[in-house]
Design brief:
The protein is α/β, with parallel strands linked by helices. It is built from 18 helices and 14 strands. An eight-stranded mixed beta sheet has the order 4-3-2-5-1-6-7-8, with helices on both faces. The chain is globular. The relative contact order is 0.13.
């Protein structure tokens, strides 16, 4: 089986949430445990850090992995979804899993797939744990997919767990209140394993306290940390500034446990995470003349912060700067509160990705008109970028956001 054949098998044979939505989500760990049993339970041989939350999981995962790499540890990193290539999901020291390894694993697991009928995510999690075990990593940083309690990654007993924050996303699967969503995320809290809570929220904190008490797990709030003395004068993108405390606190917990991390490792890993662990799609500058930024924010909490930072950047450019917004999303979202966040003066370019879950750009245009937002339709994000590039002036910002899958289709990301 070649790499191409393996991907065709994975995408065509296995139900994938990112493409199909709710029907592909498996609400128990049975399949994952069965797959891992066939592989000799590689997850039981790994030291891990486990991360859940509504926003910030990917940034925290890459930041913690980068810190561990700088400190000299052979570090695995599992995140999802990928942007450009499947292999982005599974990395060791920033290097993506080799195509030959994906092909060999997939071919080996075909009989198991026919027997167990796992989802795409379940098999991918098994692939990650197997690859990390084979690579003999010192530690692996593992990001949950959806929720936590019933997420396929929730078969590990980590060194430390992290819950970044709780917001309204995937409510059809996780619950319609912050407390219900927090209960699902709190499922990653394990017996006598410290858990860091990245953000205090009055609605959700009691849920975490109760679960930590039940598990006799130390609960630690992300505390203030500073990058450097003159940080006030340094531009720190929102995804890093919001998650800095959580990342630093997890690093300090690992330090306390005996992992050889010094403060210089922590600062360097945090500041250089994009280069070290290959983080993409988070406030990523694609060009500077005009300024073009891509960001995978896709829910109310994430987009609210994103638009605030864009507003700050525009104010630094002077009164004449405009936002040229290239926006696409998926069908299974309540768009009213999301569209309400878009600045009234934004020049909008409605677009869509090529996945089945994508909301057609023409439908998005109609929904946006109800919010008094107007713009042209582009069925391809790159066409929208080119049009915005021609329109943009020197003080303007072109922003591509609304969906991971729209950002993923940007050429040369």
């Amino acid at each position: 089986m070649t790499y191409k054949e393996a991907l065709e098998y994975l995408y065509s044979r296995l139900p994938m949430y990112q493409r199909e939505g709710k029907s592909a989500y498996k609400k128990d760990l049975t399949n994952t445990l069965a797959l891992l049993e066939m592989l000799g339970n590689p997850h039981l041989k790994l030291k891990t850090v486990h991360i859940a939350g509504t926003n910030g999981k990917g940034t925290c995962a890459h930041g913690i992995a980068a810190i561990l790499q700088v400190a000299g540890y052979k570090t695995g990193l599992y995140t999802s979804p990928h942007l450009k290539h499947f292999s982005e999901r599974i990395k060791v020291d920033g290097r993506e899993i080799p195509e030959a390894s994906v092909a060999a694993f997939t071919e080996r697991m075909v009989p198991a797939v026919e027997q167990i009928q796992p989802s795409f995510f379940e098999l991918t999690v098994a692939m990650a744990f197997y690859h990390f075990s084979q690579a003999q990593v010192d530690i692996a940083v593992i990001e949950t997919g959806l929720g936590g309690r019933l997420d396929s990654t929730n078969v590990i007993s980590p060194e430390v767990s992290l819950i970044t924050n709780i917001g309204f996303d995937h409510m059809d699967l996780l619950g319609d209140t912050l407390e219900k969503i927090a209960f699902e995320k709190a499922g990653i809290i394990k017996n006598e394993v410290p858990v860091v809570i990245g953000l205090y929220q009055k609605e959700t904190y009691p849920v975490f306290v109760a679960k930590a008490k039940k598990c006799n797990a130390e609960l630690i709030l992300g505390r203030e940390g500073r990058l450097e003395k003159d940080e006030e004068d340094v531009f720190v993108p929102y995804h890093k500034s919001l998650n800095r405390n959580a990342i630093f606190t997890v690093a300090k917990v690992l330090q306390r446990q005996g992992w050889a991390l010094d403060d210089q490792d922590i600062v360097q890993g945090f500041s250089e995470m994009e280069k070290i662990s290959r983080l993409k799609g988070r406030f990523q500058f694609l060009d500077y003349n005009p300024t073009i930024i891509a960001d995978v924010s896709h829910n109310v909490d994430g987009l609210k912060v994103l638009f605030n930072q864009i507003s700050t950047l525009l104010s630094q450019n002077g009164d004449g700067g405009r936002l040229l917004l290239i926006f696409g999303t998926v069908k299974d979202k309540d768009l009213s509160p999301i569209l309400a966040l878009i600045p009234e003066r934004a020049i909008c370019y409605w677009t869509q990705s090529k996945i089945p879950r994508a909301l057609p750009a023409a439908e998005l245009q109609l929904l946006a008109k109800n919010q008094m937002l107007h713009g042209e339709v582009f069925e391809n994000v790159n066409d929208a970028i080119e049009s915005a590039r021609q329109e943009a002036q020197i003080d303007d910002i072109v922003l591509v956001t609304g969906s991971t899958f729209v950002v993923a289709e940007i050429a040369d990301l």
